[in-house]
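Backbone shape codes
____________________
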Amino acid sequence: MLESLFSGISEREWIGICAACGAVWIFWVLWQGSKGKESSSRGGGIQLRVSKAAFIREVIRWCVGHFGLPPRSRTWPRVDLRYYKHRKVMGTYQQRGKVITVYWGSHADLREVVNTVIHEYQHFLDIRSGKDDRAYDKEIKEVGYQDNSFERKAREVADRWQKACFKDLEKRGVCRIVSK
């Protein structure tokens, strides 16, 4: 059968090609897995002790415990973890579905991930309705992203609470600081 598909390749050569491809795939999977539980060298020697998805959930848990849920809400935001680097953003919040998206590859280290999750959680608290969403969009058009009051507040909250969140996550064993 293989001879009919690849007439110039013997069955033995085909098995060798498949074995080589399998070995490359296994190496890649192991390499990606080892990247998943440690930060970059710029991360100050911080190591994850859980998966990336579990880490994000733990930051959300911390946010719920420290900032609470929005009035008249009993549900946490949904989280969508994307592993690639987005060309423009580190994270987003989508009001209609109450979804926080985190682009893991856009972050230099775990501190940035924590900052992004807290930032987007603040949007979850502040942008609750279509009316809030329209107000956000209107302000973006009028003053731009940097001067938007929703963005300024989210940056201030994330910058203020990032270290406290990180300390709590370390205390609970979610991550640890390793000396170099």
Notes: The chain is about 55% helix and 10% strand. Residues 41-177 form a domain with the Zincin-like fold (CATH 3.30.2010.10). Helices lie at 2-5, 11-36, 52-67, 110-126, 130-143, 149-171. The radius of gyration is 22 Å.
